[in-house]
Amino acid sequence: MAARLLTTQDVNWDLERAAFNILVDQQPAGIAVPRSADEVSDVVRSAAADGKRVAAQRTGHNAVPLGSLASTVLLRTAGLGGVQIDADAGSARVGGGALWDEVVPRASELGLAALHGSSPNIGIAGYTLGGGVGFYHRKHGLACNRVTAIELVTAGGEQIRVDAEHEPDLFWALRGGGGSFGVVTALEFDLLPLPEIFAGALLFPAEQASEVLHGWREWTAGMPEEMTSVGRLMNFPPVPEVPDPFRGKSFAVLEVIYCGDPADGEELMAPLRELGSAGTDTIQVQPPAGIADLHMDPQDPVPYTSESMLIRELPPAVIDSLLEAVGPGSGSRLVSVELRHGGGALSQAPYDAGALATLPGSFVTFAVGFVPVPEAMAPTRAWLGAFRASLEPYDAGRYFNFVEESFDIAQIFPPEVLDRLREVKQRYDPENLFHSNHPVTG
Ligand SMILES: Cc1cc2nc3c(=O)[nH]c(=O)nc-3n(C[C@H](O)[C@H](O)[C@H](O)COP(=O)(O)OP(=O)(O)OC[C@H]3O[C@@H](n4cnc5c(N)ncnc54)[C@H](O)[C@@H]3O)c2cc1C
Predict the structure, then answer these.
(1) For residue 384, how far is its CA from the centre of ligand 1 (angstroms)?
(2) The pTM is what?
(3) What is the distance of C-alpha 258 from the center of its chain?
(4) What's the angle, vertex CA 196, arms to CA 215 and CA 111, rounded to 5?
(5) Cβ of 437 less than 6 Å from ligand 1
(6) 41, 216, 241, 330: most buried, per Cβ within 10 A?
(7) What is the pLDDT of residues 144-161, one digit of tens each?
C-alpha cells in the first residue's frame, strides 16, 4: 500500500498542514502520510526524484523555524505509531510518530518512568532528536542520551538501524543534533525504574511573586539532583478553556518533582510551603503518570510567540529585574515565564553521549505569550524582549528544543561538535534533502 498523498484539492489538506502554533501557515508542495517505514522510503525517493525536499513533522510544536515549504513535501509521521514496553529490560520501543502520552501512563503502570517533557502531546522523536529536558533531568540528564537505537530512512531511501556499534557517527549526530539526517521510523530508549515520585505544584497569589521566587531561588541551591523544580509567573488567559478558579488570574507558581525516596522529598520540600499562602497545593506521592499535566501546557493548538535562554546563574538581582520586566505590576500578559532549575546531570556529559552531551548554565528559561489577534503581537514581543533583557547579563546560550525561530546552531554547539555534525550531514545527506527546524548544513 502506498502512503497517503495530499494536494491542495484534498478535504484534509488544511487539517494535515496545521501546526501546533496556529500562527504558522504551512503551505508545502505536498503532504505525505506514510504508515510504515516502506512507505517513508517511497515518499523520500519520489520527493528526491521530483526535486523536492522532505520535512518530517509530527505535531508541529516547532514549526516556526521551518520557513517556506514551497519546495518541500511535508511528511506527517502520525501513522508511524506503535509503543512496546519491555518491563523486565526497563526499556521502550516506539514508532517515529509516537507521542509521550502513549508511553508515560503505560510505563507508569509498570513502575517505570520516561524522560518526557512538560507536554504529553509532544512527539517523542522530535523532542528526543533535539535533546529532551523533562522533569527528572537534574538526576538523569537529557532524554537523547538514554536512546539505545534508532531506525531511520536515509536520503537514499534506505532503511537503517543505528546504535553504538552500527553507524556510530550517525547515532551520535541524531542524539541532540536534530532532524537533519533522515526520517526516524522507530526509537528505543531506557526507562527509569520509578514507581513513585513526590511531586506537584504550589500556586501563590501573584502579589507574593517576589517572596516566592526569591525563596525558591535560595532553596534550589541546596537541593540534591533528585529534585527538579520550576519557578514561574503565570497569567491565565480569560478564555473558557481555562478552569474557573484560574481563568483570567495571575499566580506565582512552583513545580517540584522529587525522584528519590518520597519521604525525603516531603522533608526537602517543606520550606516551599512556608514561602507564602498557596491557594493551591497539589504536591503528593504519586505514580510518574500523575505529573503529565503538572505544567499545564495547552493540549490544543494555540496562537503564540516565545523566547528562551539558558542562564549561567540566578543571583537575587536577576529575580528583581525579571519581576520588574514581566512580573506583577509590569503590565505583562505573558501566559508563562518559567525558570527551570538545571545543572546536576544536565552539566555532566555521559561517557557515551550524543551530539548534545550537556546543557550549559544552571537554569533553563522559557517565556510565552498568546497572540489571539494580530494587534497582540507587538506588545507580546515587547514583553518577551523585556524578559530577555532582564536575563541577558547571565546568558549561557540557547537550548535546541526551546528555540522557536530560525537561528544558527553554531550558537549552541562548540566548533568541534558542529564540524562533526556537518561531516555526518555531508556523508548521509549531501544534497540537503531533509528540511528540519534547526538545520545542520554541510
Ligand atoms: C507547549 C510546549 C511544551 C514543550 N515542552 C518541552 C519540554 O518540556 N522539554 C523539551 O525539551 N522541549 C519541550 N518543548 C519543545 C519540543 O520538544 C520541540 O518543539 C520538539 O521539536 C517537538 O517535537 P515534535 O515532533 O512534537 O514537533 P514537530 O514540530 O513535529 O517536529 C520538530 C522537528 O523535529 C524533527 N522531527 C520530528 N519528528 C521526526 C521524525 N520522525 N524523523 C525525523 N525528524 C523528526 C524535525 O526536524 C522537525 O522539524 C515544548 C514545546 C511546546 C510548544
Answers:
(1) 21
(2) 0.97
(3) 20
(4) 150
(5) yes
(6) 216
(7) 999 999 999 999 999 999
pLDDT at 19 > cutoff 70: yes
Closest CA to 414 of 360, 350, 344, 351: 360
CA of 132 to the centre of ligand 1 (A): 9
The C-alpha cell 510518530 sits at 97
Minimum-distance ligand 1 atom for the alpha carbon of 57: 30
pLDDT band at 277 (very low <50, low <70, confident <90, very high): confident
Residue nearest to atom 18 of ligand 1 (CA): 401
Atom of ligand 1 nearest to the CA of 181: 43
Does pLDDT of 416 surpass 70?
yes
Q: Which of 76, 67, 26, 72 is nearest to 52 (CA)?
A: 72
Decide: 192 and 115 in contact? Cβ < 8 Å. yes
Q: For residue range 213-258, list pLDDT tens digits in order.
A: 999 999 999 999 999 999 999 999 998 888 888 999 999 999 999 9
Counting DSSP H helices and E strands in the chain, the numbers are 11, 20
**Distance from C-alpha of 69 to C-alpha of 29, rounded to nearest angstrom:** 7
Ligand 1 pocket: which of 26, 53, 61 to mutate (most atoms within 8 A of CB): 61
From 43, 57, 137, give the residue whose CB has the most ligand 1 atoms within 8 Å, as the site to mutate. Answer: 57
**H or E stretch at 159:** strand 159-163
